[in-house]
Amino acid sequence: MNALRFIASRAAGMAVVLAIVAVLVFVLTRAASGDPVSVLLGDQATAADIARVQQEYGLDKPLPVQFGYWIREVLQGNLGQSIFLQRPVTQALAERAEPTTLLSLMAVAIAALIGLPCGIISAVFRGKAVDQFFTGIAMLGASIPSFWFGIVLIQVFAVSLGWFPVSGYGAPDAPFAERIHALILPATVLGILNSALIIRFTRASMLDVLGEDYVRTARSKGLSESTVVLKHALRNALVPIVTVLGLTVALMIGGAVVTETVFGLPGVGSLVVNAVLRRDYPVIQGALLVIAGIYVLINFSIDLLYAVVDPRVKV
């Protein structure tokens, strides 16, 4: 019963967050300078042409009425019709979802494979040269701009060595392996830079646990250091680590916007950038609302995982 109450309360909180996001997204898109109809029709459009298209898309109505129409469509599972793409926003997002999803998953895997071992080793050898090295790597990774790092990797591994394509995702009928190959460089950019956050959180969490009495007791029993660190310390340090991993997944979605632009990937990030340039209100609103929904779902999943990784946490 407590679990059901927890899920119900979290679902209500998610609904409130999404409602606030919907209001903010709608207001901010309308507050931005520029008119999608003028961009669509060009400078030669007459006032009659502009008025006709505005009426066609409901842009001539008061803003509260436009917001009410949009929310009604969203509640029915319809994110609207793209002004420039001339197709439903849900279809446009679905067409761009694969590159962004694969890129995010690959980047999270790279970040975890780098961040977790480095953070654990840094905590175990606190104050020593290896700790200072990994701490410096974490600070450097948090400071490097993703677009600059992407350009450097393109110059070295794509242009000079020719190991990877400079940009793109392959043709629509390209083999899956070819698409994965095209995502290695952008995923490496996101993975390495976001591993810095995982290193810092893992190190801090492990340091808190390694000083506990039960860890000293385990060592006094003659257990190997690897058993003490991995079985006793790491297991009890997982809650903050799970939190930062979930946060990393969420950050990948935002970071994909810049990375997809640098590498010319036809993902959701590039779709949003083009929509902003064109003032395509339905695409901007729909994409940001979906991204916000993914964020809250990730947070909800993290809360449920707490009870799995730490039995002391009750939901």
TrEMBL record:
The chain crosses the membrane at residues 102-125, 137-160, 180-199, 237-263, 283-309. Keywords: Cell membrane, Membrane, Transmembrane, Transmembrane helix, Transport. It is found in: Cell membrane. It holds the Pfam family BPD_transp_1. It is a multi-pass membrane protein. Its main location: membrane. Residues 97-306 form the ABC transmembrane type-1 domain. Belongs to the binding-protein-dependent transport system permease family. PANTHER family: DIPEPTIDE TRANSPORT SYSTEM PERMEASE PROTEIN DPPB-RELATED (PTHR43163), PEPTIDE ABC TRANSPORTER PERMEASE PROTEIN (PTHR43163:SF3). This is ABC transporter permease.
